[in-house]
């Protein structure tokens, strides 16, 4: 049996047609390597190929084994864990809020303040509904072949800029001076926030499309230019913390692309220059704006609170630090009566009511899940899966780190969210969308073939 007939028989056993290019490439590689060895031993080309094919084994048996390996693989255990942890977070929130209301006793004023304050009034049925919708969205995205995004990276960025720009400047609903969302069906408002982070996988796909061109420093400059409008739009909301989060994610992805030699530039010099500009330019810009008195009073107050958090003991941050300082390793901490509840500070309440060990356990669980995804994406043979998956994990990781620092009183309130502890629809949908993309990458890791990149000829 010759090589062509052998490969045809093997691939006939493969049910996932998307895996055929990868299986074919793998078989051809094995046969050619063995054929080369036989030719070195003295056989002619025809004899060597026949012997190499014979050594591969029965084509039907090989095909069945290949079919078992090269097929979409669902991470059902991880999906189940995500669902359980989200529902457990809702139950935990109910228990903590009940404890806070019990502490308020029979004082109607305190009960009303706790229930009606920012983040205090929780619709648990709605939270469960968002969990179900999010899970369905995540599983749906998981079944979608993420590699299709890689073909239209630049088009997706352009579409995102147009849609977000029109939404922001021609019909956004503003709350407290910031664009919250756009009007949707039956007068409902569709939050913008979940859609803003969709720019990250689109940017990753754009970087991947540049990989084949080997465009040198010009390519690096183009990659930076693709960042400007998205970050500017987010700043116009305005949402500084999200703009910083997205820009840092962009730069991490660009750094990976540079390190992987997608642009054929001096890696160390380029990375040092890029990160120096990222750190120095914003610092210089803020300093100049402050000196020229272009910063509003409320912005100065926030900047002061960030630099000197200890000077704001009468604020929410002060109450949080008071709760942290009186915490025990296990069990309820020592603190004056709590007269507020805010679902954005669930970790703080967990530390107060259940102890530091409980909070460390939750941080370890969430961190462990993110590390699992980061490890899976980092070992992807498909470079598109690697760069897109890394972008999604970095988004979730930055939000998680910001949430922990915020809940420990070391960071001002900045709309960060925590996986499984945030019940707001926006934060949950961001998490589920990113998880869906990550699970799609995991699902197709043994199916998709990595296109070959031809080296650019350099004339001397």
From TrEMBL:
Source organism of the structure: Dorea longicatena
GO biological-process terms attached to the record: cell division; regulation of cell shape
Molecular-function annotations in GO: lipid-linked peptidoglycan transporter activity
A Pfam match: FTSW_RODA_SPOVE
The entry's keywords: Cell shape, Membrane, Transmembrane, Transmembrane helix
Location(s) in or outside the cell: Membrane
Protein name: FtsW/RodA/SpoVE family cell cycle protein
Regions that span the bilayer: 75-96, 128-146, 155-175, 195-210, 217-235, 241-259, 271-290, 351-374, 386-405, 417-442
GO cellular component: cell division site; plasma membrane
UniProt topology in membrane: Multi-pass membrane protein
Keyword Transmembrane carried by entry: yes
């Amino acid at each position: 049996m010759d090589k062509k007939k052998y490969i045809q028989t093997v691939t006939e056993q493969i049910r996932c047609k998307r895996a055929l290019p990868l299986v074919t490439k793998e078989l051809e590689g094995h046969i050619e390597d063995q054929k080369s060895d036989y030719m070195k031993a003295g056989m002619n080309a025809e004899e060597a190929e026949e012997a190499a094919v014979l050594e591969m084994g029965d084509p039907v048996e090989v095909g069945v084994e290949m079919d078992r390996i090269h097929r979409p693989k669902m991470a059902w255990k991880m999906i189940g864990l995500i669902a359980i942890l989200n529902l457990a977070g809702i139950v935990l929130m109910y228990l903590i809020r009940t404890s806070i209301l019990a502490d308020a006793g029979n004082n109607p004023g305190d009960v009303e303040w706790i229930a009606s304050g920012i983040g205090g009034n929780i619709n648990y049925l709605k939270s469960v509904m968002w969990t179900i919708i999010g899970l369905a969205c995540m599983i749906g995205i998981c079944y979608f072949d993420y590699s299709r995004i890689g073909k239209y990276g630049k088009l997706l960025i352009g579409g995102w800029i147009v849609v977000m720009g029109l939404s922001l400047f021609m019909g956004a609903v503003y709350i407290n001076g910031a664009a919250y969302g756009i009007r949707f069906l039956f007068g409902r408002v569709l939050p913008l926030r979940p859609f803003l982070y969709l720019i990250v996988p689109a940017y990753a796909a754009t970087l991947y499309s540049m990989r084949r061109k080997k465009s040198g420093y010009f390519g690096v400059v183009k990659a930076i230019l693709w960042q400007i409008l998205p970050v500017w739009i987010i700043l116009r909301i305005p949402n500084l913390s999200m703009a910083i989060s997205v820009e840092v994610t962009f730069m991490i992805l660009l750094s990976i692309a540079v390190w992987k030699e997608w642009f054929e530039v001096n890696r160390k010099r380029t990375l040092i220059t890029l990160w120096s500009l990222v750190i120095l330019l914003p610092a210089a810009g803020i300093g100049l704006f402050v000196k020229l008195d272009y910063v509003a009073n409320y912005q100065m107050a926030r900047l002061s609170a960030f630099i000197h958090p200890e000077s704001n003991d009468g604020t929410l941050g002060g109450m949080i630090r008071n709760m942290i300082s009186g915490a025990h390793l296990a069990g309820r901490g020592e603190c004056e009566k709590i007269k507020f509840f805010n679902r954005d500070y669930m970790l703080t309440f967990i530390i107060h009511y259940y102890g530091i060990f409980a909070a460390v356990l939750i941080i370890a669980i969430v961190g462990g899940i993110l590390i699992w995804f980061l490890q899976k994406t980092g070992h992807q043979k498909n470079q598109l899966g690697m760069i897109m998956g890394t972008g999604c994990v970095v988004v979730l990781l930055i939000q998680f780190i910001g949430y922990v620092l915020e809940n420990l009183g070391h960071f001002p309130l900045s709309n960060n969210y925590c996986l499984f502890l945030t019940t707001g629809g926006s934060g949950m949908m961001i998490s589920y969308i990113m998880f869906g993309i990550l699970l799609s990458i995991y699902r197709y890791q043994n199916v998709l073939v990595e296109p070959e990149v031809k080296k650019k000829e350099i004339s001397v």
